[in-house]
Amino acid sequence: MEKHTEDGILGELQADFVNSWRKLPNKFLFFGMFGAWLALFHLVGNSTLGYIHSSSLFRWLLDAYHPAGDYASSEDVIGLVVPFVVVAIFIWKLKELVTLPLKEWWPGLGLLALAMLLHLFGYMVQQPRISVIAFLAGIYFLMGLAWGPHWLRGSFFPIFLLGFCVPIGPNAEMITTPLRHLVAIIVTGIAHLGLAPDLVREGTQLFDAQSSFRFDIAPACSGIRSLTSLLALTTIFGFLCFRSSWKRLLMVLVAFPLSVIGNVMRITFTVTVAELFGQSAGAAVEQNAGFVTFAIAIVAILLLEHCLREPKADSTLPLEPSPT
Length: 324
Known about the structure:
- Mean pLDDT is 81; it is low at 313-324.
- The protein is mostly helical.
- The chain contains 14 helices and 3 strands.
- It is 66% helix and 3% strand.
- A hairpin with a 5-residue loop joins β2 (205-208) and β3 (214-216).
- It has a 3-stranded antiparallel beta sheet, covered by helices on one side.
C-alpha cells in the first residue's frame, strides 16, 4: 500500500514538472545564451595562470573548493553542493513560477552587460572571486531576459543561495580570528565555574597550570565551517518554511550564535575530558566530536521553527460573505 502511495506521489510530481516545463516559454533563448555564458567563463574566465594553469573559471573554483584535493581542510567545499540544491528548488518551484506573467524582458540585456563588465574588471585585476559573482549575476539576468521581472522576483531566493558558491579563501581570517578568541574566552569562563578551575588562556591557546594538556583553537575549530554550513541550512529552512520576512531573517541570523554555542560546548567538553584524563583523551574528543556542533544546531533550529510555525489556513471554515 505504501509503495503504491509513494509511486502515486512521485508520478504526480513528475506530471506536474512535465506540464510546467511545457508551459515554460523561451527555453531555447535562455539555454542557448546560458550555454554561451558558460563557454565564456570556461574559455576566458581565469587570469591567475601563475596559480592555476587554466583559463577556466570552473577549474579555478574546483581548486578553491578542495585545495590539493583535500576536501576536509576546505572552508568552501559547500560550494560543490549548493548548485544541486538550487536546481532542486527550481524544479520544486517551477509549477508556481510558470503561473507568473512571463515574457522577454530586453532590459535584461543591459543588466547582462553590467555582469560582463564586472567580469572584465575581475579578469583585469586578477580577482577570480569577482568573476564568480559576475557569472552568478549573469545567470540571474539571463533569466530576466528570457522570462521577465516577475520571474526575477519569484526566483530571487534560490539565486541568493548561489552566493554560497563564492569561495571565502584567505578572507576567512577576518571571521575566524574573532571567532577563535570569542570561543576561547567563553570556554575559559565556563571552565572556571568548576569544570577546570586552573585553565589558563593565552590568546587562543588553552592549557592547565601544570601544562599537562594544551589545546589551540585553530581556524578550523573557530566555527567557520559550521557557520557556513549552518548559514546555508538556516537560509534554506527559513525561506521554505516561512513567508514572513522577519521570521526568515531570524532563521538566517540564528546561524551565528548557534555555530558559536555548538563549538563552545565541544571545546568545553574537550577541556573537561583533558582535565580528568589527560591530553590524549581530550585530543580524541576534539577530533571525533565534530558532529556535536551540528547536532545541537539542528535541534535548536527545529525547536525555533516549531515556536515560529505559521498556522495553516483552515479550509473547512465557511467563507465570509462578501460585502454588498
